[in-house]
Amino acid sequence: MRKNISIIILILHQVLFLLIFLIPFNSSSEIYLTTLLNILLIIYLATFSILSKFLFKEISSYVFGIIVFIVGFLSHVIAIVFSPEYILWTNSISVLTHHPGGRFMRIGTIISYTLSIQFFIKFGTILKAETINDNLRKVAVATGIFTAITAIFTGSFSGSTPLNSTLHGLFALLSWLGGVTVCFLYGFLMLKNSKFSKSASNFSFFIGGILVFYLIPFFILNFCNLFPETSSVYAFGRTIYTIMPTFEWILILLLLSWFLVNSIYMFRENIN
Predict the structure, then answer these.
(1) Can you give the pTM of this predicted structure?
(2) Domain residue spans of the chain
(3) Cβ within 8 Å of residue 115, ≥6 positions away
(4) DSSP state of 195
Protein backbone atom coordinates (compact mmCIF):
# COMPACT_ATOMS: atom_id res chain seq x y z
CA MET A 1 0.00 0.00 0.00
CA ARG A 2 2.72 2.46 0.99
CA LYS A 3 4.71 1.56 -2.11
CA ASN A 4 1.67 2.30 -4.28
CA ILE A 5 1.26 5.68 -2.56
CA SER A 6 4.94 6.42 -3.23
CA ILE A 7 4.54 5.60 -6.92
CA ILE A 8 1.46 7.84 -7.14
CA ILE A 9 3.34 10.72 -5.48
CA LEU A 10 6.28 10.35 -7.86
CA ILE A 11 4.02 10.17 -10.94
CA LEU A 12 2.04 13.21 -9.75
CA HIS A 13 5.23 15.16 -9.23
CA GLN A 14 6.51 14.40 -12.74
CA VAL A 15 3.10 15.07 -14.34
CA LEU A 16 3.05 18.52 -12.74
CA PHE A 17 6.47 19.17 -14.23
CA LEU A 18 5.21 18.19 -17.68
CA LEU A 19 2.16 20.44 -17.32
CA ILE A 20 4.48 23.41 -16.86
CA PHE A 21 5.75 22.79 -20.40
CA LEU A 22 2.24 23.48 -21.71
CA ILE A 23 1.88 26.84 -19.96
CA PRO A 24 2.83 29.71 -22.35
CA PHE A 25 5.11 31.68 -20.01
CA ASN A 26 6.84 34.82 -21.18
CA SER A 27 9.33 37.18 -19.54
CA SER A 28 6.57 39.15 -17.82
CA SER A 29 5.25 36.01 -16.11
CA GLU A 30 8.68 34.82 -15.01
CA ILE A 31 7.69 35.07 -11.34
CA TYR A 32 4.88 32.54 -11.86
CA LEU A 33 7.19 29.98 -13.45
CA THR A 34 9.71 30.36 -10.64
CA THR A 35 6.95 30.01 -8.04
CA LEU A 36 5.59 26.84 -9.66
CA LEU A 37 9.04 25.27 -9.89
CA ASN A 38 9.72 25.98 -6.22
CA ILE A 39 6.33 24.56 -5.18
CA LEU A 40 7.15 21.34 -7.04
CA LEU A 41 10.55 21.24 -5.37
CA ILE A 42 8.94 21.64 -1.94
CA ILE A 43 6.50 18.80 -2.75
CA TYR A 44 9.40 16.55 -3.74
CA LEU A 45 11.48 17.32 -0.66
CA ALA A 46 8.45 16.97 1.62
CA THR A 47 7.76 13.48 0.27
CA PHE A 48 11.42 12.53 -0.12
CA SER A 49 11.58 10.26 2.93
CA ILE A 50 8.47 8.37 1.78
CA LEU A 51 9.81 7.92 -1.73
CA SER A 52 13.21 6.87 -0.44
CA LYS A 53 11.89 4.33 2.05
CA PHE A 54 9.22 2.63 -0.02
CA LEU A 55 10.28 3.12 -3.65
CA PHE A 56 13.81 4.36 -4.31
CA LYS A 57 15.46 1.80 -2.01
CA GLU A 58 14.71 -0.94 -4.56
CA ILE A 59 16.50 0.90 -7.37
CA SER A 60 20.26 0.49 -7.85
CA SER A 61 22.50 3.54 -7.55
CA TYR A 62 23.76 3.28 -11.13
CA VAL A 63 20.19 3.57 -12.43
CA PHE A 64 19.87 6.99 -10.79
CA GLY A 65 23.25 8.07 -12.15
CA ILE A 66 22.37 7.08 -15.71
CA ILE A 67 19.00 8.87 -15.50
CA VAL A 68 20.71 12.00 -14.14
CA PHE A 69 23.00 12.02 -17.18
CA ILE A 70 20.26 11.31 -19.73
CA VAL A 71 17.79 13.89 -18.40
CA GLY A 72 20.47 16.53 -17.83
CA PHE A 73 22.11 16.04 -21.22
CA LEU A 74 18.90 15.88 -23.25
CA SER A 75 17.38 18.91 -21.52
CA HIS A 76 20.38 21.02 -22.53
CA VAL A 77 20.29 19.72 -26.11
CA ILE A 78 16.54 20.35 -26.41
CA ALA A 79 16.98 23.85 -24.97
CA ILE A 80 19.56 24.67 -27.65
CA VAL A 81 17.39 23.21 -30.43
CA PHE A 82 14.44 25.38 -29.38
CA SER A 83 16.67 28.47 -29.08
CA PRO A 84 18.28 28.81 -32.54
CA GLU A 85 19.32 32.39 -31.81
CA TYR A 86 21.45 31.25 -28.86
CA ILE A 87 25.17 30.83 -29.63
CA LEU A 88 26.79 28.57 -27.05
CA TRP A 89 30.42 29.65 -27.60
CA THR A 90 29.66 33.36 -27.07
CA ASN A 91 26.94 33.22 -24.38
CA SER A 92 26.97 31.62 -20.95
CA ILE A 93 24.56 28.84 -20.06
CA SER A 94 22.62 31.26 -17.85
CA VAL A 95 21.74 33.34 -20.93
CA LEU A 96 20.05 30.29 -22.45
CA THR A 97 17.38 30.45 -19.71
CA HIS A 98 16.18 33.76 -21.24
CA HIS A 99 15.45 32.05 -24.57
CA PRO A 100 12.42 29.94 -25.59
CA GLY A 101 14.19 26.64 -24.90
CA GLY A 102 15.43 27.75 -21.51
CA ARG A 103 12.43 26.27 -19.73
CA PHE A 104 13.39 22.78 -20.93
CA MET A 105 16.88 23.17 -19.48
CA ARG A 106 15.58 24.53 -16.18
CA ILE A 107 13.09 21.74 -15.63
CA GLY A 108 15.59 19.12 -16.83
CA THR A 109 18.15 20.47 -14.37
CA ILE A 110 15.67 20.29 -11.51
CA ILE A 111 14.52 16.75 -12.34
CA SER A 112 18.03 15.38 -12.86
CA TYR A 113 19.47 16.86 -9.69
CA THR A 114 16.52 15.84 -7.53
CA LEU A 115 17.30 12.28 -8.61
CA SER A 116 21.02 12.85 -8.01
CA ILE A 117 20.27 13.13 -4.29
CA GLN A 118 19.46 9.42 -4.28
CA PHE A 119 22.61 8.71 -6.28
CA PHE A 120 24.80 10.48 -3.73
CA ILE A 121 23.13 8.67 -0.82
CA LYS A 122 23.37 5.21 -2.41
CA PHE A 123 26.90 5.84 -3.68
CA GLY A 124 27.91 6.87 -0.18
CA THR A 125 26.43 3.66 1.24
CA ILE A 126 28.36 1.56 -1.29
CA LEU A 127 31.60 3.26 -0.22
CA LYS A 128 31.29 2.00 3.36
CA ALA A 129 34.44 0.07 4.29
CA GLU A 130 36.72 -0.59 7.24
CA THR A 131 39.47 1.39 5.52
CA ILE A 132 37.29 4.50 5.28
CA ASN A 133 36.55 7.04 7.98
CA ASP A 134 32.78 6.91 8.32
CA ASN A 135 32.52 10.58 9.32
CA LEU A 136 34.33 11.57 6.13
CA ARG A 137 31.96 9.38 4.14
CA LYS A 138 28.96 11.12 5.76
CA VAL A 139 30.48 14.51 4.96
CA ALA A 140 30.82 13.43 1.31
CA VAL A 141 27.15 12.39 1.17
CA ALA A 142 26.02 15.60 2.88
CA THR A 143 28.11 17.66 0.44
CA GLY A 144 26.58 15.76 -2.47
CA ILE A 145 23.05 16.51 -1.23
CA PHE A 146 23.98 20.17 -0.68
CA THR A 147 25.41 20.40 -4.20
CA ALA A 148 22.30 18.80 -5.69
CA ILE A 149 19.95 21.19 -3.87
CA THR A 150 21.95 24.29 -4.87
CA ALA A 151 21.98 23.04 -8.50
CA ILE A 152 18.20 22.61 -8.29
CA PHE A 153 17.81 26.18 -7.05
CA THR A 154 20.14 27.36 -9.82
CA GLY A 155 17.61 26.04 -12.33
CA SER A 156 14.63 27.25 -10.32
CA PHE A 157 15.86 30.82 -9.95
CA SER A 158 16.95 31.39 -13.54
CA GLY A 159 15.38 34.36 -15.26
CA SER A 160 15.51 37.99 -16.26
CA THR A 161 14.31 39.62 -13.03
CA PRO A 162 17.01 41.17 -10.78
CA LEU A 163 16.12 38.95 -7.80
CA ASN A 164 16.15 35.78 -9.89
CA SER A 165 19.47 36.72 -11.48
CA THR A 166 21.07 37.38 -8.10
CA LEU A 167 19.80 34.14 -6.56
CA HIS A 168 20.76 32.22 -9.69
CA GLY A 169 24.32 33.52 -9.47
CA LEU A 170 24.57 32.70 -5.77
CA PHE A 171 23.28 29.15 -6.11
CA ALA A 172 25.41 28.57 -9.23
CA LEU A 173 28.54 29.54 -7.30
CA LEU A 174 27.58 27.29 -4.37
CA SER A 175 26.91 24.38 -6.74
CA TRP A 176 30.31 24.85 -8.43
CA LEU A 177 32.08 24.89 -5.06
CA GLY A 178 30.06 21.90 -3.92
CA GLY A 179 30.92 20.07 -7.14
CA VAL A 180 34.65 20.56 -6.51
CA THR A 181 34.30 19.16 -2.99
CA VAL A 182 32.16 16.22 -4.14
CA CYS A 183 34.61 15.19 -6.84
CA PHE A 184 37.59 15.24 -4.49
CA LEU A 185 35.79 13.59 -1.55
CA TYR A 186 34.21 10.78 -3.56
CA GLY A 187 37.45 10.36 -5.49
CA PHE A 188 39.35 9.95 -2.22
CA LEU A 189 36.78 7.50 -0.86
CA MET A 190 36.96 5.43 -4.06
CA LEU A 191 40.74 5.42 -3.76
CA LYS A 192 40.44 3.93 -0.26
CA ASN A 193 37.81 1.36 -1.26
CA SER A 194 38.93 -1.94 -2.80
CA LYS A 195 35.75 -2.15 -4.90
CA PHE A 196 36.95 0.72 -7.08
CA SER A 197 39.99 0.97 -9.31
CA LYS A 198 42.52 3.76 -9.19
CA SER A 199 41.36 4.97 -12.60
CA ALA A 200 37.83 5.51 -11.22
CA SER A 201 39.13 7.74 -8.45
CA ASN A 202 41.53 9.53 -10.80
CA PHE A 203 38.63 10.38 -13.11
CA SER A 204 36.85 12.05 -10.19
CA PHE A 205 40.03 13.94 -9.25
CA PHE A 206 40.43 15.03 -12.88
CA ILE A 207 36.95 16.58 -13.06
CA GLY A 208 37.48 18.23 -9.67
CA GLY A 209 40.71 19.74 -10.97
CA ILE A 210 38.98 21.07 -14.10
CA LEU A 211 36.35 22.67 -11.85
CA VAL A 212 39.06 24.42 -9.83
CA PHE A 213 40.68 25.59 -13.05
CA TYR A 214 37.31 27.02 -14.15
CA LEU A 215 36.71 28.85 -10.87
CA ILE A 216 39.95 30.83 -11.13
CA PRO A 217 38.88 32.92 -14.18
CA PHE A 218 35.31 32.87 -12.81
CA PHE A 219 36.37 34.78 -9.69
CA ILE A 220 38.70 37.08 -11.66
CA LEU A 221 35.84 37.94 -14.04
CA ASN A 222 33.43 38.77 -11.23
CA PHE A 223 36.09 40.87 -9.51
CA CYS A 224 36.68 42.84 -12.71
CA ASN A 225 32.92 43.43 -13.07
CA LEU A 226 33.03 45.51 -9.87
CA PHE A 227 34.99 48.23 -11.69
CA PRO A 228 33.52 50.94 -13.99
CA GLU A 229 32.92 49.81 -17.56
CA THR A 230 35.41 52.43 -18.78
CA SER A 231 38.28 51.05 -16.67
CA SER A 232 41.06 48.81 -17.94
CA VAL A 233 40.29 46.26 -15.24
CA TYR A 234 36.73 45.85 -16.52
CA ALA A 235 38.04 45.52 -20.07
CA PHE A 236 40.40 42.78 -18.88
CA GLY A 237 37.39 40.98 -17.40
CA ARG A 238 35.58 41.18 -20.73
CA THR A 239 38.60 39.59 -22.38
CA ILE A 240 38.49 36.71 -19.92
CA TYR A 241 34.76 36.29 -20.55
CA THR A 242 35.42 35.28 -24.17
CA ILE A 243 36.68 31.86 -23.01
CA MET A 244 34.08 31.32 -20.26
CA PRO A 245 30.98 30.17 -22.23
CA THR A 246 32.82 27.35 -24.01
CA PHE A 247 34.61 26.43 -20.78
CA GLU A 248 31.29 26.34 -18.94
CA TRP A 249 29.67 24.02 -21.50
CA ILE A 250 32.63 21.65 -21.37
CA LEU A 251 32.39 21.63 -17.59
CA ILE A 252 28.65 20.88 -17.59
CA LEU A 253 29.25 17.89 -19.87
CA LEU A 254 32.10 16.68 -17.66
CA LEU A 255 29.98 16.94 -14.51
CA LEU A 256 27.16 14.98 -16.14
CA SER A 257 29.70 12.42 -17.36
CA TRP A 258 30.84 11.98 -13.72
CA PHE A 259 27.43 10.45 -12.97
CA LEU A 260 27.48 8.35 -16.15
CA VAL A 261 31.03 7.00 -15.86
CA ASN A 262 30.65 6.05 -12.19
CA SER A 263 27.28 4.44 -12.89
CA ILE A 264 28.66 2.39 -15.80
CA TYR A 265 31.57 1.30 -13.62
CA MET A 266 29.25 0.15 -10.81
CA PHE A 267 27.00 -1.66 -13.30
CA ARG A 268 29.94 -3.37 -15.02
CA GLU A 269 31.52 -4.43 -11.74
CA ASN A 270 28.12 -5.39 -10.27
CA ILE A 271 28.57 -3.00 -7.32
CA ASN A 272 25.29 -2.37 -5.48
Answers:
(1) 0.84
(2) 1-58, 60-268
(3) 64, 67, 68, 71
(4) T
